[in-house]
Amino acid sequence: MDFPLLIASLSTDSVLDVAQNYDAIEIINRAIAYAIILAGFLSVVFTFFGGISFILSGGQEDKIKQAVSTIRYAIIGLIVTIFSVVIVALVGNALGLNVVQYINLGEIFNLVEELVSSTGNVTNGGNALE
Fold first, then answer.
1. Which end of the chain, C or N, has fewer beta carbons within 10 A?
2. Is position 6 within any domain?
3. DSSP 8-class letter at 126
4. Number of domains composing the chain
5. 59-105 pLDDT, tens per residue?
């Protein structure tokens, strides 16, 4: 089931009915994929906001520091989000848990690519630009 069908089914079915169509591993991987997409979007928004703040700082030292901090923490947050999957797998292995069977990094990146490509088409007069 791809993203548009999921949204359409959410309008007619309960969340539990839709969740029963997926197994637990796929739900975990999809949640991680959505979190990565959300973190990427927020990182871009905060980087843009920090850039605008930097431009509008007027040379004031405290505003420049605040703008640079916003940009820095947005990028650090994105990096931590992407590496969180690896960190969870390493901690799970260190504690003797078999987390790798539940978190499949390749599948997560395929889901991210699928979700972005299915919702990211820009239209120009009815013609899809890809």
1. C
2. no
3. T
4. 1
5. 899 999 999 999 999 999 888 887 887 777 788 778 776 666 666 66
